[in-house]
Amino acid sequence: MEIVCKNCNTSHFLSDDRIPLETKTGKCKKCSAPITVLGKNAIGSIELSLTHSIQRLNVFLKS
Predict the structure, then answer these.
(1) Could you tell me if residue 22 is left (phi over 0), alpha (psi between -120 and 50 degrees) or otherwise beta?
(2) In this structure, are residues 28 and 12 in contact, taking their beta carbons and an 8 Å threshold?
(3) What is the spatial distance between Cα 9 and Cα 3, in angstroms, rounded to a whole number?
(4) CA-based end-to-end distance of the chain
(5) How many distinct helices (H) and strands (E) make up the chain?
(6) Is pLDDT of 17 > 90?
C-alpha cells in the first residue's frame, strides 16, 4: 500500500502484511506530519459501501 503525506507529498510504502486491522495514525518520516493509515476493517467497509452505491446507481440508470 502506498501512503502519501498530505503535507510534503512524500510516498511511504507499507507491505500488505503490515496493514493494521484498525485505522492508525503515524508520522511522516520526512516532515513529521501526521499520516492516517486506513486499517483493513475500514478498507473493507469502504469497498462494501462503494459496491452498494454502484448497485443503486445501476438500478437508477436502468429506470
Answers:
(1) beta
(2) yes
(3) 9
(4) 38
(5) 1, 4
(6) no
